[in-house]
From TrEMBL:
<dbReference type="Pfam" id="PF01607">
    <property type="entry name" value="CBM_14"/>
</dbReference>
<keyword id="KW-0325">Glycoprotein</keyword>
<keyword id="KW-1015">Disulfide bond</keyword>
<dbReference type="GO" id="GO:0005576">
    <property type="term" value="C:extracellular region"/>
</dbReference>
<keyword id="KW-0677">Repeat</keyword>
<protein>
    <submittedName>
        <fullName>Chitinase 3</fullName>
    </submittedName>
</protein>
<dbReference type="InterPro" id="IPR051940">
    <property type="entry name" value="Chitin_bind-dev_reg"/>
</dbReference>
<feature type="domain" description="Chitin-binding type-2">
    <location>
        <begin position="30"/>
        <end position="86"/>
    </location>
</feature>
<dbReference type="GO" id="GO:0008061">
    <property type="term" value="F:chitin binding"/>
</dbReference>
<keyword id="KW-0732">Signal</keyword>
<dbReference type="InterPro" id="IPR002557">
    <property type="entry name" value="Chitin-bd_dom"/>
</dbReference>
<dbReference type="InterPro" id="IPR036508">
    <property type="entry name" value="Chitin-bd_dom_sf"/>
</dbReference>
<keyword id="KW-0147">Chitin-binding</keyword>
Amino acid sequence: MKSRLFNGGLKTSLIFTLPTLPSKLAAKQNFICPKPNGLFKNPDNCKTFWHCSNNSAFLKQCPGGLLFDEKIGICNFKSETIQSSI
């Protein structure tokens, strides 16, 4: 567990190992990494995101009903997430 200051208060966040979705599902997406490394929103599903590593894209799923927050690059609670597609 790690803590950080967020909007003037202390916020604790859990770090999860996120599952990679089956390769057949990821292969259908044809995602091209905008940068060689990083986390990027999935425009088709805000419960998933793309993890790019050395220009290889891996579709990951947020745990427990969380949504990917592209502004801060983590899975977050819906009430804390700003999404243009929600």
